[in-house]
Specification:
The protein has 121 residues and is an alpha+beta fold. It has 2 domains: 64 residues, Arc Repressor Mutant, subunit A (Orthogonal Bundle); 47 residues, Ferric-uptake regulator, C-terminal dimerisarion domain (Dna Ligase, domain 1). It is built from 5 helices and 6 strands, in the order H-E-H-H-E-E-E-E-H-E-H. It has a 3-stranded antiparallel β-sheet. A 3-stranded mixed β-sheet has the order 5-4-6, with no helix packed on it. Helix 1 crosses helix 2 and helix 2 crosses helix 3. The protein starts with a helix and ends with a helix. The relative contact order is 0.13. The model has no long low-confidence stretch (mean pLDDT 91).
Length: 121
């Protein structure tokens, strides 16, 4: 494993949240000042392909990256873009039983206004 990838993994493990590649780049620079933006983007893409992290796509927004590679659901605030992990207990297994075939993977995103944004109204 390269030092750059180790720095990216460290950033994702030590910081809770769902960060954009740019945010990960900025955080990784504190640990590895010579890291370049392209290295972060390339490593994140490879880590998605390898199943180490999940990409969260939001229309009109930069992709975010989730350090939890297991299938789970997200709630995204429609105002501030905050992403929160949620779990619908055994959703994959229940759907597999209902449709009669195994589900390999899924993405399920709910959109709402988070409590912080709601309180600002």
């Amino acid at each position: 494993m390269t030092k750059q990838r180790a720095a990216i993994i460290k950033v994702m493990k030590e910081n809770c949240g769902h960060f954009t590649a740019e945010e990960i780049f900025q955080l990784a620079q504190t640990e590895f000042p010579s890291i370049v933006r392209a290295t972060v983007y390339n490593n994140l893409n490879a880590m998605v392909d390898e199943g180490m992290v999940r990409r969260i796509c939001q229309s009109g927004e930069p992709d975010r990256f989730d350090r939890n590679p297991m299938p789970h659901e997200h709630i995204i605030c429609t105002d501030c873009g905050k992403v929160v992990d949620v779990s619908l207990f055994n959703l994959k297994e229940r759907l597999s039983q209902e449709v009669g075939c195994p589900i390999d993977d899924y993405e399920l995103v709910f959109h709402c206004k988070c409590p912080e944004c709601r309180s600002m109204c």
